[in-house]
Amino acid sequence: MNRPTATTNNSQHNVCTYAQQSTFKIMLLGDSGVGKTCLLVRFKDDTFLSGSFIATVGIDFRNKTIVINNKQVKLQIYDTAGQERFRSVAHSYYRDANALLLLYDVSSIISFNHVRDWLGEIKEFAQSDVIIMLIANKVDKTNERVVTREMGEKLAKEYDVPYVETSAKTGLNVEFCFKAVSQALLEQTAATTSYGQSASKTLNSLVQLNNRTSKHSVCCLYS
Questions:
Q1: Whole-number Å distance between alpha carbons of 47 and 28
Q2: 70-96: buried (b, 16+ CB within 10 Å) or exposed (e) per residue?
């Protein structure tokens, strides 16, 4: 099966501002309760879902358009249910995804232990060149944290995927995750040119830079 490609649309009305718009499909994966919906809502609306709310059933879907390096990018973001009974529903979406954000809760060792299972499903159902990011969410819960940064980094290194720590509650690194993945996907669409580097290399470089400059705003990474 040929890999689904990102779509681009030229617009005469916006030609002075943006040369083209790219559309990418991103899926949020991970156990129920790791904060996938909260991460999405923080990114989409810059708000935090506090208190009790109904867990995602099947697949939820939201759009957001952002600008990366003066290029307009439309993100189609799929929020998947983490419960076992909904896994087969999510599987049908894997092959159309350009990027997968795999979350676990740093206060839940069970969700961390299940990361290997999720990565196994990704290998089975997703395209071989899909972009993957491992996200350690809820790092604001310092007193309840049981999964250390070292544990997360070790697992990410084992599977050769970038590792980022986030908090949907405080907004830490939430915007960065989506923008870094988007920039890597733009590199992927340009990979046919001799000047484009691999998407995974781009993403790893951005994550490493973000880790080094974590005390500063990440907005400077995107102009």
A1: 18
A2: ebbbbbbbbbbbbeeebbeebeebbee
List pLDDT tens digits, range 25-82. 999 999 999 999 999 999 999 999 876 555 554 588 899 999 998 999 999 999 987 5
Q: Give whole-number Cα distances, 97 to 15, 73, 127, in Å.
A: 28, 15, 8
Instruction: State the average pLDDT over residues 174-182.
Output: 97
Indicate the pLDDT class of residue 191, thresholds 50, 70 and 90: low
Q: Is residue 1 part of a domain?
A: no
Domain membership of residue 126 (yes or no) is: yes
Domain count, the chain: 1
Structure token pair of residue 159: 């599977």
User: How many Å is the Cα radius of gyration of the chain?
Assistant: 17
Looking up tokens 């995107």 gives: 222
Q: What is the pTM of this model?
A: 0.82
Report the distance separating Cα 137 and Cα 36, nearest Å. Answer: 9
